[in-house]
Amino acid sequence: MVLKVNEKSVAAESMNVGVARQRLLRLGNGDVQLERLTLAAGGSTRFEPSAKSLAWLHLLAGEADLETHYRERLSDTHSIFLPPGFPATISTHDTASLLYVEIRDAGLLDKGFSNIKPLFTLINWTRELVFKSKSDGRMRVALVSPELCQTAAIKIHMVIYPPGSTASSYHHEGAASFMYILSGRGEAWANGQRLPIQPGDVVYFRARERHHLKAADDSELRFLVFYAPGEFKTIWADPSKASGWISTGRDINGYLTEQDQRELSAYARPGG
Fold first, then answer.
1. Distance separating alpha carbons of residues 181 and 70, to the nearest angstrom
2. What domain range includes position 141?
3. What is the mean pLDDT of residues 139-167?
4. In whole angstroms, what is the distance from residue 181 CA to residue 195 CA?
5. Contacts for 137 with CB less than 8 Å, ≥ 6 apart
6. In sequence order, which residues have a C-beta less than 8 Å from that of residue 219 and are 6 or more positions away?
7. What is the domain count for the chain?
8. Beta partners for 168?
9. For range 165-176, the mean pLDDT
10. Is residue 255 situated within a structural domain?
């Protein structure tokens, strides 16, 4: 059965001075964890993935500094993937909030984990390649994928539904999925059950649980979707209505992506 919880109903607990944590979702025996962290002004917290674990961060509100081997200023457009043994510290001058996902034993979800080393990945999702549904205006951007991060333990996408848009019914073979609603309103359907959705909702679908989403007629729906593991098969109730994601060749603002611009710059150099 589908599971839904809103972050406002989840009690916060102190992690350390100036940092509070809400445990939004735990899969299995804590193998995959989704948490919301709130940092007070001047707050700081350190993430230290073990040799078996992976972590992912996404700023929800405010600004923060990320310290790894260098310092990077973060806003709510940034997504950070931390591979095994790659520590990072987040600190703020003012208040900020972020989502945090941890996979405690990536080898359980990625059979090739011991053979391929995942990559540290920091992206501004607004500068990444957008894929659009061939049937309507729905869009998605990859934040974590085997191509970007070299792991199949998890896949994460930013998804945007224009007002009134909907997907046909489908389910996933080989992976559970869950989503965090960032903005907008709509409804989720799972095995005929209707659930209204709003910002701060976490909705979890088990593998093989048939579901789909619809944005409210007067509201763009924007959410993060997570698949664990990141390799699976999508089965459509009506194959003729499959989303059929097609590359737009541009970012969300209609510009060339940062990768495209780097390649063009390299080509324009003498000898390029």
1. 31
2. 127-247
3. 97
4. 13
5. 162, 165
6. 163, 184, 185, 186
7. 2
8. none
9. 95
10. no
